[in-house]
Amino acid sequence: MGVNFDAYARTGVDLVNARLDDLDDLRALFPETSAWMREEVAERDLAIFRRAQKRLRDVFDYGTSGRDTDAVAELNALLEAFPVQPRISGHDSSDWHMHVTSRGASVSSEYLAGAVWGLSVWLCEYGSARFGVCADQRCGNVYLDTSSNCCRRFCSERCATRSHVAAHRARKRAAIGEQTTVAAQPVPADSLTPVS
Question: Where do the Zinc finger CGNR domain residues begin and end (predicted)?
């Protein structure tokens, strides 16, 4: 079984888009398959996750604005802060799988090493232009652009639809405003003279 780098990269996306107001928000970030993380997460992890969340958002901002060198520098710094130390884990030959950190690593070390590793592999494979920030001004979520021609602008269909509807309504209001302005303009006096 190979390592699913996309899944690791998506944990980075999930982290950047997550609310992290308290430990319950942090616990909600972990998948059902990571019950141990939910049980062992501590207050100190929350502060680490918040700092990493901001730094990963910077990576997406750099990628979106074409600042590849900055995105790479930040990911390299995060790889140093949360190093990958792969190990094989499992109970028997039918359950062997890879973990990204050594046994006994903290919840933050385990999660963040995987997220940073996944995003780093993603950048090397597809380039930082595939790191997106939603174009809907009310959203701001990040995403990984998996479109065939790197043209995605929104994190979801919901945001795309909402943004397109808002733009359509704005154009409609502008058109009505122009019609109202034209209708409200006074007619010049010389155009009112009768034609003989």
Answer: 130-172
